């Protein structure tokens, strides 16, 4: 029989709030939140293990296929407390974190990687994951992570694509070695580059490397780069938002590959 929670003081509800608000809680308990019918469905298809599914009939009655003993019904008032969306659809899951290792990454015959160094904003990381999925990239590799990949804001901004593309935490040194060992040429995006992003060849194995908007890429990546590329600015500013830059370069790579 499905459990029903109506109290805001229920320990399960308090724990969800902690997971929503604290990266430390997520890491210590190896749990994170997924809100939304579509996002939960993508997670299930990717093999993510769901601990509990919370739903509120006050929003909607049809839900993902989850074992009945894991389903917990909550009142609309309770769901409003645990939700992190402006327009919730009534579904929120607590899921197990399963970190992916670079050594476990299975590359396609002609890989395209996105490497992000020290990107801070969850919205930017989520948007890049969504773009990388749309462009058919093999993986998004995150160096010197400044935001929690399991943050509710990353999952929301990614529209669930954090589950459809390999998102891997790694060091710059390990990622550079991985690229060299797999004969993946490194294209480092930097405003100081001489070549425009349209003047290089993306048809073979490539890693597009991007840094934080304020600091750019580390010296390690600039020295490891096979090519340094830039998006030429025609106006008064000297750079684009990192998620916009990633989209521009990735879809140039996709255009050339097609």
TrEMBL record:
SMART domains named in the record: SpoU_sub_bind
Pfam families: MRM3-like_sub_bind (PF22435), SpoU_methylase (PF00588)
A single Gene Ontology CC term: cytoplasm
Gene Ontology MF annotations: RNA binding; RNA methyltransferase activity
Family of this protein: Belongs to the class IV-like SAM-binding methyltransferase superfamily. RNA methyltransferase TrmH family.
Domain of life (superkingdom): Bacteria
Name recorded for this polypeptide: RNA 2-O ribose methyltransferase substrate binding domain-containing protein
Organism expressing this protein natively: Candidatus Falkowbacteria bacterium RIFCSPLOWO2_02_FULL_45_21
UniProt xrefs under InterPro entries: Alpha/beta_knot_MTases (IPR029028), MRM3-like_sub_bind (IPR053888), Ribosomal_eL30-like_sf (IPR029064), rRNA_Methyltransferase (IPR051259), SpoU_MeTrfase (IPR001537), SpoU_subst-bd (IPR013123), tRNA_m1G_MTases_N (IPR029026)
């Amino acid at each position: 029989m499905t459990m029903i929670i109506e109290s805001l003081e229920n320990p399960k509800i308090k724990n969800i709030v902690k997971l929503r608000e604290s990266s430390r809680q997520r890491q210590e308990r190896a749990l994170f939140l997924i809100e939304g019918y579509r996002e939960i469905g993508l997670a299930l298809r990717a093999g993510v293990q769901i601990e509990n599914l919370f739903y509120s009939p006050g929003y909607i009655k049809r839900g993902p296929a989850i074992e009945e003993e894991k389903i917990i019904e909550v009142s609309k008032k309770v769901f409003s407390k645990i939700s992190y969306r402006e327009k919730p659809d009534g579904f929120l899951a607590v899921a197990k974190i399963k970190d992916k290792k670079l050594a476990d990454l299975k590359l396609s015959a002609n890989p395209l990687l996105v490497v992000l160094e020290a990107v801070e904003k969850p919205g930017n990381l989520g948007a890049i994951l969504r773009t990388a999925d749309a462009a058919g990239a093999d993986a998004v590799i995150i160096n010197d992570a400044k935001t929690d990949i399991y943050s509710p804001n990353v999952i929301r901004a990614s529209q669930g694509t954090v589950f459809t593309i390999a998102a891997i935490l790694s060091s710059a040194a390990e990622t550079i070695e991985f690229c060299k060992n797999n004969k993946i040429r490194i294209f480092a995006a930097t405003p100081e580059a001489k070549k425009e992003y349209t003047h290089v060849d993306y048809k073979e194995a490539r890693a597009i490397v991007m840094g934080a908007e304020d600091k750019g890429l580390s010296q390690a990546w600039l020295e490891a780069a096979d090519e340094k590329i830039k998006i030429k600015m025609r106006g008064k500013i000297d750079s684009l938002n990192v998620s916009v830059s990633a989209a521009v370069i990735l879809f140039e790579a996709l255009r050339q590959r097609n």
